[in-house]
Amino acid sequence: MRQNYDFKIDKIKDLTPEEISLRKKNLELFYRTGFPNKKDEDWKFSDLNTILSKNFNKIVNNDFLPRETEFKIIEEFEHNFISLFNGKLITKDFSYEEKNKIVIDKFNYKNELSSDSKSSLYFLNNALATGGFSLEISKNYKLKKPLVIYNNFSNSLKETIVNYKNSIILNENSELNLINYFNNSSKENFMVNTLENIKIKKDASLKNILVNSSECNGYFYKYIKSDIERNSSFENYLLSSGLKFNKIDIEINLNEENSNSSVFTALNLINNDHQEIKTRVNHNAPNCHSFQKIKNVLNNESKGVYQGKIFVKNIAQKTDAYQLSKALIIDDGAEFDAKPELEIYADDVKCSHGSTSGNIDLNSLHYLKSRGIPEKEAFRMLINGFLGEILEKLSEGKLKNFLTKKLESQIHGY
Amino acid sequence: MLNIKNLEATIDNKHILKGLNLNIKPGEVHAIMGPNGSGKSTLANVLSGKNGYEIKGDIKYNGESLSELSTEERAQKGIFLAFQYPLEIPGVNTNTFLRTSVNSVRKAQGEKELDTLTFLKLIKEKASELGIDEKFLSRQLNVGFSGGEKKKNEILQMKLLQPKLSILDETDSGLDIDALRIVANGVNSYKSKENAFLIITHYQRLLDYIKPDYVHILSHGKIIKTGDADLGVQLEKTGYSKIV
């Protein structure tokens, strides 16, 4: 089924003639295939075209939406923040940090648009993207407090797609804890297509945390491309729940020796939520370590997907790569699909992967009940324990408490 | 307190308990001994309300029919089972679990729930009585605990929940002599006129520390002999084959 869309480049402000032509070319390339469907291997378990057809009458882009600037600041821990509204950078507050160590600005599209990709959502993003941010942390600077990105969306985004790009650069020996925070309860259907480019220079460390705090009628796709240099660390914690559709596609390139990456996800899906985590970890250099733990709890008619590929280049000896997916399927109507893949061209590596799915362990449930804990609560404790395990490696403190509470609040309705 | 009449239990088409009778009064300590496969753990499971058993016969607890009560209601009314194999539950913090458990029982009994500080004080006191290191309390429930630590944790739960009827299912298995003594002391210090114990064991050695009023021998799903503490001692010398 072909989607009914109405995308107009002339709805975007302040474009040069070159940009207009490049954007039009990208839009043409998008139109050739439209939204991805299950015939595309990368989308075989998440037929976006069908999902959108069922839930949107037509999809438009619109750069001229009224601005709603009110949003709730997280009170549980001290933090710097920036706020985005429909993808556009609105406010920034780095009052905990030294001046001139952090550069934050609107994303500059002038030199960033190209048309060399095979993904139709990439083309669409190139054609329509506005807003977004670029963030750069200076050499040797470690942020004193975490940075929260408030991702706010208008309540009047009906049948509208928002496209934007972000760029994050951590220079040598810098450190950042980043929390991507979504708190939207829009009942209108809208879509968000984000491309994010992350560069982590040597000896730097980034924690990238994604938290979703409420239910909304949003359909989200985010592609994160990351390039990691020597002795660096890139940790991802994805706690996402309550979205109609959410696909997070992470590419991690471990380009130099002794770097680490991890992906921890805890997803609790209800109703007919559909979420996919797709990872591609490229071990392009020796002595790197990658770790993935993917946890899903599936209720009602929800669907969860994990596609994870580990690629080990021939020179990447002493690679240590681990990938584990565990799913709890609570209701008969729920579905979980996993496609773990290893592609290894080096001979001295340690790579392992595993995938399990099952129901809640009845013996554990009995044990908790035998201590007087009512069944519902015992159930919730087990689900919570199952998902909460992904936060174990975070150091104790207010941020961890906040994330633990957020995870607990996602497990409602039992 | 507990009156079991003609109890039969079947699981997966295996008929395990075949007409078991047992009466326990407040303040009494009963031991059930028997060879492997005689139905000891099945009895413990059935009393705790574990699913999957087809049950005939009658179990009354303080006059109330147990079959009417869910597992959690039994616990809330004062029945406690110390598991033979306590479960490891990843992601569930031991302290949180204990507090949830104690407060669930208190709430059901119409008592005020304990706040974090009061609970912390209580648990520190009880843990130290059993020689449990405080750091265990902040770990995930039973995960990576040794056999002895798991069993001590069971006795800690018993002392926190203050049950009327405590069923100890092979609590002595996997314990070294020191741990056995600590566990036995834990039980002995909780003995009272109101509380009863049902101790399920293979060996006499636990009964050297916790003196039973009655020893029952279970074989093929029935109690075939009942005696006083001497029966256990005798059994240790002769073995089951002479009696069963």
Can you describe what's shown?
The complex is a heterodimer of chains A (414) and B (244). Chain A is α/β, with parallel strands linked by helices and 414 residues long. Chain A has six helices and 21 strands. Chain A has one domain. In chain A, strands 1, 2, 5, 6, 8, 10, 12, 14, 16, 18 and 20 form an eleven-stranded mixed β-sheet that branches. Chain A has a ten-stranded mixed β-sheet with strand order 4-3-7-9-11-13-15-17-19-21, covered by helices on one side. Chain A is globular. Chain B is of the alpha/beta class. Helices cover 38% and strands 29% of the residues of chain B. In chain B, a hairpin with a 2-residue loop joins β4 and β5. In chain B, α5 runs parallel beside α6. The longest helix of chain B is centred in the middle third of the chain and has 15 residues. The two termini of chain B are 28 Å apart. In chain B, 42% of the residues are buried. The mean pLDDT of chain B is 92. The interface between A and B is medium-sized, with 23 and 28 residues.
